[in-house]
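Annotated sample (chain length 401).
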Amino acid sequence: MASHLLPTYIRADLAFERGEGAWLTATNGERYLDFGSGVAVNALGHAHPRLVAAITDQAQKVWHVSNLFQIPQAERLAARLCEASFADKVFFANSGAEALECVIKTARKYHAVSGHPEKFRIITFEGAFHGRTLATLAAGGQKKYLEGFGPVVEGFDQVPFGDLDAVKAAIGANTAAILIEPIMGEGGVRVVPNQFLKALRELCDRHGLLLAYDEVQTGMGRTGELFAYQRTGAAPDIMGLAKGLGGGFPIGACLATAEAAKGMTAGTHGSTFGGNPLGTAVGNAVLDVLLSPGFLDNVRKTSLLLKQRLAEVKDKYPTVISEIRGEGLLLGLQAVVPNGDLVAEFRNEKLLAIAAGDNVVRLLPPLIVGEAEVAEAVGMIDRACARIARTRAASAKEAVA
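Output written by the structure step:
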């Protein structure tokens, strides 16, 4: 039967009916180990009892009242996010793209109310991905996503990844901010060196610019810290969050210092559903788990184990995998073969993973995985790589013959 969904996704012929922890059960009864987590969204896996209890409890009370009234759950979540970060103020949205729209508007408005409305341009980096709205697409600057949607939103200057001289050259009289992902997720799990982020912080301080981080994918424990910037020594002025913040429930957030947010006054921005009682109740439950004693320590421990085991697989199959990238439980396998082939072979093993740019396969397991799931996943990856390596070897032999 033909689908009535707009065909903007190439969907696998696979559907799931339930999940528990790191596992999903398909409609045909087969079980899959989920190392994609809905693209880093299901931070606590599937059907986590704390999240189920939070949303069930709140659903029996009030779902939506609008931001014309006080929302205690949102107030609490905002206060906790600020207490755990650099920020003083939070705006809640429903997605990563919306969070980044708020980041962009906050940066521009800051300069406008500071007497410099000409400062509206934002420096971004080639290969970045900041969302699918017209402004966030322009921020990312990738032609394949921009093509066919008319004039590109003005105000973004892309520079090569990791090129500090290019950043310096791009700073001009109209520059307002620098926007960067501490780890490029969609762009190939490319880790930005700490010294580079520190250099950006110094440049922003010297030129009166704002430093903005896109932590939509890296935030909420994904790198082993609550936020990726916390391991860098370079705090931002503004930051976008989403994905893991709701553990699967749609919620995004823009965090900012009081100074950076000074232009965002009544009427300057809004969201009908942003910060609703359901979303923020779940967000608070996610924080309860992430901030519980030892949780992030265990994420770091599991990450180290997984990275070591993956390195062994890479060494074993150099014709399939050339590099292991990433931090925490945001890891990437740079493939020698087409990354789609590797994703397909993993799925044949009943392991779910996500393709990324630069011919990389992302592994984004839920943060609750343990040694048993790591061992099982590595076994699946090993078997998939072995099949690909055998096929490549046989093809090479035939070519010689």
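Annotation: The chain has two domains: 16-34+296-400, 49-290.
Annotation: Residues 49-290 form a domain with the Aspartate Aminotransferase; domain 2 fold (CATH 3.40.640.10).
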